[in-house]
Structure formats: structure tokens, C-alpha cells
Amino acid sequence: MLAIYGAGHFFRKVISESMVTLLEEAKVKPFTIWTNAAAELSAFQADVARWPVPSLTRLRGTTLGGINLTEFFGPGGQDIPAQWRAPMEDQFDAVLYLGPLASITLGRPQPWRCSEPAMAERLRRLRLQRPQLADRVEQECVR
Asked: I want to staple 59 with a disulfide (CB 3.0 to 4.6 A). Which of 30, 66, 89, 129 is the partner?
């Protein structure tokens, strides 16, 4: 089975539960992949610059695997809750390398409408775990 969600659904070290923790409780062993688009991996491990694009590599027991998850978020890493801060190999099984950051173009999703029926519940849940993110989502919603 293949499931694709945002990275937060795949964390093993979490505040409450994630899709991965639920599967592992049910004795299912998911293989999770971090898609890198925020950190320059060659800054952590020089030979990454010579990897083919795309490349997939396991993390357990590697230089990249020993680096804290927060580093993989680039400048946004300081917002990561303490419960998620762990070596990357404890959060994910592999990393997908898409090339140097300068070669990656990201599209930004449309902001939620402030009047969206699910917005109040989304903000409530975010405020429980990441209040600063909830404030930003509320400020950026389309009025």
C-alpha cells in the first residue's frame, strides 16, 4: 500500500499520534520517506552533490540519519515542537533527494478561506500543538 500525506503524518516521534504510530501499534511496519525540499543536504554530507537526481537513500546508520529532524526544515526548523526533535533516522526510513535547493521550484497551496466550515476546527487543533502556526494560518486565510 502506498499513502502520500504531508510529512507530519509520517513522524514516529510525535506529540500525540500520527499515521505511522497508529500503523506501528497495529503491528504494521510502514516505510517512510522524507522528500527533501528545505535543507541543502550537501551541507550535511558533501558527496550528496554528486548523487543522481532523483535519489532515494536509507537513513539508518548514516550521516544524514544522525542529523536532527529540525535541520531538514531549513530556517523553519526552530518552529518544530520539542517532541518531534530526534535524529532523522528515528523519524523516517529514507530521504528522497531532488537535487540542490536552487533547482527545486515549489508551488504554494491556496490559503484556506476564513469562512471554510472546517477552519474553526483546524485552528482549534493547531492551537493545541503549534499555536504560532495556528496564528499564521488564521492571518493568511482568505477573507
From this structure: 89
Closest CA to 32 of 76, 90, 80: 90
Which residues, including other chains, have CB under 8 Å from residue 8's CB and lie 6 or more apart? 18
- What would the grid cell of residue 99 be? 537535487
Q: At what angle do helices 119-129 and 131-140 cross, to 10 degrees?
A: 150
Global pTM?
0.69
**Cell reading at 125:** 487543533
Q: pLDDT (tens digit, 9 = 90+) per residue, 60-105?
A: 999 999 999 889 887 777 777 777 788 999 989 999 999 999 998 8
Grid coordinates representing 19 are 499515521
Distance CA 111, CA 4 (A): 20
Strand order in the sheet with 94-97: 33-36, 94-97, 55-58
